[in-house]
Model the fold of this input.
Amino acid sequence: MPGANIMDKTIFSTLLLILLAWPQSRVYAQQPVAQLKSHPFEEQFHDQAPVSGRVIAGVTLTGYASSALLSLVLPASAAGSSICVQVMTRNGRYWSKNTFQLPASISATAVSLEYPSEHQKFLLQQQSDDLAVLGTARECSDTDTGTVYLSSTGNERDAEPVVSVFVNSGRSDTYLSVKNDVNKRSPARCQMIQQGRRTGYDTICRIKLSELAASQENLDIKIVRRRYERMLPATEFMLKLPKLD
Amino acid sequence: MHPLFQKGLLFVERRCRESKIIILIFALLVVGWLSGTDREKIFTLDVSTEVVRFSVTDPLLSEWMIGNARLIDNPFSEDSEGVVLGEHSVLMLNIGTQVRMQRHGIETVRLLLTTDKQASVGRIEDADGRSTELGEWALLLVEVSGHPLVFPFRGTLTAGDDVAIGVNSILLSGTVSVVEQQLLGNTHYTAGVEDLDPGDRIQFWRQHQPVTGMPALAIVDGFIRAEPMEGFSGPADALALVAHGQADFVQVERLGSAGYQVRASRWARFLHDPLLAAAAAALALLALLLECSSKCIEFTKLWRGQDKTSIAADTQASDNKNGTQA
Done:
């Protein structure tokens, strides 16, 4: 029957198309990998939340596609350097701090982290606001340089690109200002997390990338905190931005 | 035994067994329904705390006398003194304003007013009727002197703070209790009381919000009482908070654990709800009666059987006797 033949061909073509399209939607372009430099891999996972944290708990970029569990979004100038990466969950149950060696040349903006965690499943279950990654330009044993790179947890790939700064404010009012912002905007009030446990960090400051000047390579960020009538010391760092399409 | 009587006994026995099962199933279903149906639950929080946070949903309840308070309205101001308000100043809050109230021991009460809406948090009116509109952020430092201050409110509440680095104001002690509505009538009973530990963080939750169907913070009514500085010296004074509200559960965040939820136990209904207690008692009585009746039938059968055997034995003995004589 000619009708049945046409039907069979249509089904076959559709299946072939699905088969061809499926792997392409699942696999991203091959990313360079930052090798783990510090051995053994240092991480902690507690059933009971420990009290820990510093003022800046993480700086991540959401809405940016990445194939790895954790990756860094880097400018080409960072190639070959060492980066200290601290990962922390909002509830404080998971914490890790390790040094990674970047490849000698970075062809892609995103560099995957060689991350041999025993708690991959737990990390994959975390929402984007529940996992803070802080990549600083130094070895973890060295003193802080105040230079921070963007990280990506690969969540919310379709969302608008937003830089999220995770702050352990100690329940104070927190404001973020970009000192070298060409638009000279007033400091923006950060959002305190109201629900659930806030052991690792309690506040998220967001900067929409679309609101920044396209030519911006470095952002000088200042975090201002106020606890009732007392101003707390400001925290400043330089955020190195890659060239994003 | 007469065959007709024997037949009747068998019929009654069979009917009894069938009806016993039906009655038991029916009674179990009734008790299951009584204990399983959802009922109105009112949670009460009674705590001593150093920090309370709530979002205002009814501004009429939140008009507070804050005479002689100091006002700081610029979040970037280095000036920690602020402007002193008039003696009879009244603070009027807007819907959506987030209030964070903090006090250590008998120190000044700090009222931090913020909003996420880029709007005014409220206004302050003095005795002459002059009104001062506040911006997105305001801090009021209230010294409680002479007489206690009471701040009523209606809104979504968070009592205490989860312990972390930099946190120095926490919940000190208290209880959360839940009263549940009885099945009939507008009366309630206490379904449980939980003691709270220092450092706990408490929130009232609704399982399903009417509009979105998602879990959401429940709106509660309450008040905060601040005792005057004179005559009190213990750190436990701080702020006394009492809040009541309908909710599905109370979430307790506790350091060193994954936290837990306070809910009205269904078992409490068997103890406290008169209707359910009566139904459970009736079921137990019914089971007892059915057991007694079945035992009675068994005894009757047994007795009848023994009777029949002894008659047969007597008959045989007399027959044997007659035969010997013959």
Q: What stands out?
A: The radius of gyration of chain A is 21 Å.
